[in-house]
Predict the structure.
Amino acid sequence: DAYYNLGDTLRDSGNTNDAIEAYQQVIAIDPAYIDAYINLGAVLAAGLNFDDAIKTFEQAISIKPDVAEAYNNLGTVYQKSGNIQSAIKNFKQAVSINPEYADAYLNLGTAHIFAEDYAAALTAFEKTISLAPDHAEAHASQGATLKELKQFERAIDSFQRALTLRPNQPAALR
């Protein structure tokens, strides 16, 4: 646990190279320590090292295939790298493992927007809101999707709700 906590502290302090080494040390000591893979992958992705992040999340999934966070994070990396269909597939897997995972539904909705599937995006954002009614980003994303679907009154309501929850939210102010 000391290496893992060291990795977290180094990551939080912005020392990503040493954080990567600490997480790799955890994995060398305990190759089944899933949280180390998840945090290592997140640090790699934050540094735009998408290929290694993808490999790391895939390793985590091969060791423990029922960890929704690994699929969600893998989906996020695929989305950032432009592979939207793989992102959608992984977000769907995350929510199938954990149907209460609001952020994975939010990410799924965002991926559907990139795929220009606004009806599917709306469904995902509505699910996010049903799980986390005070999720300002979900309300703003729902508003943007409703705007694309020309459902202007509902879009206005969603943006207003987002602004009530987070008055300075840039997405709702657009």
